[in-house]
UniProtKB/TrEMBL annotation:
Domain of life of the source: Eukaryota
Keyword presence, Ribonucleoprotein: no
Organism the protein comes from: Fagus sylvatica (Beechnut)
Cofactor binding summary note: Contains 1 topaquinone per subunit.
Protein name: Amine oxidase
Keyword field: Copper, Disulfide bond, Manganese, Metal-binding, Oxidoreductase, Peroxisome, TPQ
Entry's localization field: Peroxisome
Length: 778
């Protein structure tokens, strides 16, 4: 991932706040090139260059970083990558190229090398002690307090351990999946004439698995299906002559029987057909083609099963199917929406150095992977004289599952694992193609390998900006007539991905009162089915003639590696469940009004398999066992659920073999480096029952004082409405991490009043003075 420079648009602001600080360089002020969206960026560039303040150390004294080493080979300078990139920075495009070249060169034969398909190349995240060392002495804002004090002072190494890449490589000829670890100790600054390779640390075949599918495979699958003679005949039976209108969406087969075993790489596509029209984005999902069974061998890219089982008429073209301007609701778009501009004349309040972010006493690092997408690392709060106080080491969304509730073909097979089977990060958008943020925006690029080993860059992949969020707090004293009010501002970091018909936006919001909110926004287009004339189904909603939307659920898993008031190396957290209890009538409750909060320590993994209960206001607190606030209570952060659900499918549903983690809303484990994904690393065609989280907790490890990892499963049940067509308005769900005894008082009390030149007129309208004349004319 890299920071970017962007063109100025009404919602996307040119910016470049990246500085590269090596071990040989002292902390530098980040360069800033920001523009106001309402002004000419070229005219104002010099005046806004100092809008973002420079970095300041988070400690009073920061020792100078150790001296870097520089090597050269045949006149070509080489950089020590471990000191030019932070240990948690995502792999750069150059590093990905080096990793791929290294693995290719290690192939035993030309045939093996030609058969390599690169599913994923991602950073091997180092031990937490390495991250602490880097933050203490190698990278600004230099925080030596992260490391424990030692007699005689710290021993600082001259350089950090080399970075490593982890590659998942599929062999298209042998159907094997192999995981490689490559050391990236030296990356040439100039590659001409150089070997441009790292060092293979390990290479292991993973038996009996299928890795995620790739977009290249999806495109090849569509071409192969459309070229199959029996498929063409089936399309003609349905009146489809132009195969360019046909859409073939390759879906992973999941695992329903031994026929789906990972000994073959399989897909069962869903078929759709666009209506011929002049619409630039003709909605092909409005016309599902049903009754055709197709099974594709994705390894050899051939159809191995085809059957035209049932002639279901193609739904008629719905006049309300499209959603582009001028195509909606009879071609009449709204004309009474006035411009809304978000303007920060003095620039944003956040500061950025590479992937390190500071904002309103918060600081953290931004990461990105092909599977999870956005990652938030090293979350901490600067709490006055108490200094830097850690909250979490790593926050991300690690899996999502979408099971459908229709038992009919093909819908019963629709239970996508969109992270593990496809990759949320790999399907992320470039926000150049439709900016979803307003105001001053900081963008970050993301780099991935493609299927053939090249490097693809998603520009403007991650968006960061500030948002006004209404009232933070307010009180009016009726005796004095005085009032105090503060507006809430939050920092939002997000990305959006598309998986077939659905869009998912993943957001982390940071608040001035110490809260962190995780939010998922769902939108896009419904996955539909076709109906015979006069047919209805109770497993969905008829939304147009011959067209219905099956009921389904969306589940998301957030993995939170917590570190509440824990420095690196400390494991002093525990989890407490809180439920409200009603006091029994009697001498302690003579008025029958009493209730109280009851706490229960979750002592082990099996005990910590918990579900939400809104009737008792159930929530969970991660506490530090050795740190107290001014009242003597243990400091903590609590997880407050939002709306939630559990799977409605029966306990023997086939998809639950791979998604046993959906059976509870909360799981708690002690940190283990290899325990990353709740359904295991390779859920595609996985025949093993309960792999991943539900198996790990059977160890029943102690949680009484540990390095705690929370796995929160949250979801929604979607009963489609007519109003969800042709595009689904955003549905929101998520949860909150809130300080609970973490601070000695509200951290929001020192937020300054909002500065405004708004006037309140007699007619109730609030306008700026410059607008009064215009308002009078209106």
């Amino acid at each position: 991932m890299a920071t970017t420079q962007e063109k100025t648009t009404p919602c996307c602001i040119k910016n470049d706040t990246t500085t590269t600080t090596t071990a040989a360089s002292p902390p530098q002020k980040p360069s800033n090139d920001w523009a106001n969206p309402s002004e000419d960026p070229t005219r104002k560039r010099s005046s806004v260059a100092t809008m973002i303040p420079s970095f300041e150390p988070l400690t009073d004294t920061a020792p100078p970083p150790p001296t870097a080493t520089t090597a050269s080979t045949k006149g070509m300078p080489m950089m020590v990558r471990a000191q030019t990139s932070h240990p948690l920075d995502p792999l750069s495009a150059a590093e990905i190229s080096v990793a791929v070249a290294t693995v290719r060169a290690a192939g035993a034969t030309p045939e093996v090398r030609d058969s390599m398909r690169f599913i994923e190349v991602a950073l091997v995240e180092p031990a937490k002690s390495v991250v602490a060392l880097a933050d203490a002495y190698f990278f600004p804002p230099f925080q030596p307090s992260l490391l424990p004090k030692t007699k005689g002072g710290p021993v600082i190494p001259s350089k950090l351990p080399p970075r490593q890449a982890r590659l998942v490589v599929y062999n298209k000829k042998s159907n094997d999946t192999r995981v490689w670890i490559v050391e990236l100790s030296e990356v040439h600054a100039a590659t001409r004439g150089g070997h441009h390779r790292g060092k293979v640390v390990s290479s292991n075949v993973v038996p009996d698995v299928q890795p995620p599918m790739d977009a290249v495979e999806y495109a090849e699958c569509e071409a192969v299906v459309k070229d199959f003679p029996l498929f063409r005949e089936a399309m003609k039976r349905r009146g489809i002559e132009d195969l360019d209108l046909v859409m073939v969406d390759a879906w992973c087969v999941g695992y329903h029987s031994e026929a789906d075993a990972p000994s073959h790489r399989l897909a069962k596509p869903l078929i759709f057909c666009r209506t011929e029209s002049d619409c630039p984005m003709e909605n092909g999902y409005a016309r599902p083609v049903e009754g055709i069974h197709v099974l594709v061998d994705m390894q050899n890219m051939v159809l191995i099963e085809f059957e035209d089982r049932k002639l279901v008429p193609l739904p008629p073209a719905d006049p309300l199917r499209n959603y582009t301007p001028g195509e909606t609701r009879g071609g009449v778009d709204r004309s009474d929406v006035k411009p809304l501009q978000i303007i920060q004349p003095e620039g944003p309040s956040f500061r950025v150095n590479g992937n390190f972010v500071q904002w309103q006493k918060w600081n953290f690092r931004i990461g990105f992977t092909p599977r999870e997408g956005l990652i938030i690392y090293s979350v901490a709060y600067i709490d006055g004289s108490r200094g830097r106080r850690p909250v979490a080491h790593r926050l991300s969304f690690v899996e999502m599952v979408v099971p459908y509730g229709d038992p009919n073909e093909p819908h019963y097979r629709k239970n996508a694992f969109d992270a593990g089977e496809d990759g949320l990060g790999k399907n992320a958008h470039s926000l150049k193609k439709g900016c979803d943020c307003l105001g001053y925006i900081k963008y970050f690029d993301a780099h991935f390998t493609n299927f053939n080993g090249g490097v693809d860059t998603i520009e403007n992949c991650v968006c960061m900006h500030e948002e006004d969020h209404g009232i933070l707090w307010k009180h009016h004293d009726w005796r004095t007539g005085l009032a105090e009010v503060r507006r809430s501002r939050r920092l939002t970091v997000s990305f959006i991905c598309t998986v077939a018909n659905y869009e998912y936006g993943f957001f982390w919001h940071f608040y001035q009162d110490g809260k962190i909110e995780a939010e998922v926004k769902l939108t896009g287009i419904l996955s539909l089915g076709a109906l015979q004339q006069g047919e209805t189904r109770k497993y969905g909603t008829t939304i147009a003639p011959g067209l219905y939307a099956p009921v389904h659920q969306h589940f998301f898993v957030a993995r939170m590696d917590m570190a509440v008031d824990c420095k690196p190396g400390e494991a002093f957290n525990q989890v407490v469940e809180v439920n409200l209890k009603v006091e029994e009538p009697g001498k302690d409750n003579v008025h029958n009004n009493a209730f109280y909060a009851e706490e229960e320590l979750l002592r082990s993994e099996l005990q910590a398999r918990r579900d939400c209960n809104p009737l008792s206001a159930r929530h969970w607190i991660v506490r530090n066992t050795r740190n107290v606030n001014r009242t003597g209570q243990l400091t903590g952060y609590k997880l407050v659920p939002g709306s939630n659900c559990l799977p409605l499918a029966g306990s023997e549903a086939k998809f639950l073999r791979r998604a046993a983690f959906l059976k509870h809303n909360l799981w708690v484990t002690p940190y283990a480096r290899d325990e990353k994904y709740p359904g295991g690393e390779f859920p595609n065609q996985n025949p093993r029952v309960g792999e991943g989280l539900s198996t790990w907790v059977k160890q029943n490890r102690s949680l009484e004082e540990a390095d705690i990892v929370l796995w929160y499963v949250f979801g929604m049940t979607h009963i489609p409405r007519l109003e969800d067509w042709p595009v689904m308005p955003v549905e929101r769900l998520g949860f909150m991490l809130m300080p609970h005894g973490f601070f000695n008082c509200s951290p929001a009390v020192d937020v300054p009043p909002n500065v405004s030149d708004v006037e309140i007129k007699d007619n109730g309208l609030a306008v700026k003075p410059i607008q009064n004349e215009l308002l009078a004319k209106l």
